[in-house]
Design goal:
The structure is a homodimer. Chain A is of the alpha+beta class. Helix content of chain A is about 30%, strand content about 40%. The first copy, chain A, has one domain: Alpha-Beta Plaits (2-Layer Sandwich), CATH 3.30.70. Chain A is globular, with a radius of gyration of 16 Å.
């Protein structure tokens, strides 16, 4: 990931449990489409046992998110999503202003990092 | 949630699987502390089977996030976290600029909403 600022699209959802195969295929298609899109930095998905999940997609700027979401193919997937897979979802588009973290080490206190601010 | 802008702290992690009881207690303590903090809007946690998870906490502004993270008690929990519970984690602080979503309905196409832009 680059130094901030960059943008994140936070997609939170609850699935209805239907059509796991179709859902899985659409997820893969969406990731492949995102990878081809200018400004794409990465994607991270977590899903819990109850069908609630969050997908974070990272982008260099907000215009890249808009361009990605405006694609016709994504509109088709969105229609299918609503008819078949989700109870509800929301999307928040946000500008990342600071980022830092920590990783453990085999011995010692681990490593702290700070990607800084704009 | 209010109309944008507001702020989100995106905490991504992988747990090492140790000390589930101590970890659970610290999570509850952190949520209770956040609820008492000025500017707190809400918290949303998802954890997958492999110990990877994300916690989104929402705040009216960035100063509220800084004040929350600067508390002594949170510093104690952070030290325990590093020694006992996580393989790695990172935190991104971001300003939410747009938000919208969709909910299913028993009959019909469901409900679309748009919380607007700043």
């Amino acid at each position: 990931m680059p130094r901030p600022p960059y943008h994140v699209a936070i997609f939170r959802y609850r699935r209805n449990g239907e059509d796991a195969v179709g859902y899985g295929e659409a997820r893969r298609d969406m990731l492949e489409m995102a990878k081809l899109q200018p400004g794409f930095l990465g994607m991270d998905s977590i899903e819990g046992e109850g069908g609630e999940g969050v997908t974070l997609s990272y982008w260099t700027d907000e215009a890249s998110i808009r361009a990605w979401r405006a694609q016709d193919e994504l509109g088709v997937i969105r229609e299918k999503s609503r008819r078949g897979w989700y109870d509800h979802y929301d999307l928040q588009v946000a500008r990342v202003e600071r980022a830092y973290g920590w990783s453990s080490a085999e011995d010692g206190d681990g490593t702290e990092w700070d990607a800084g601010s704009p």
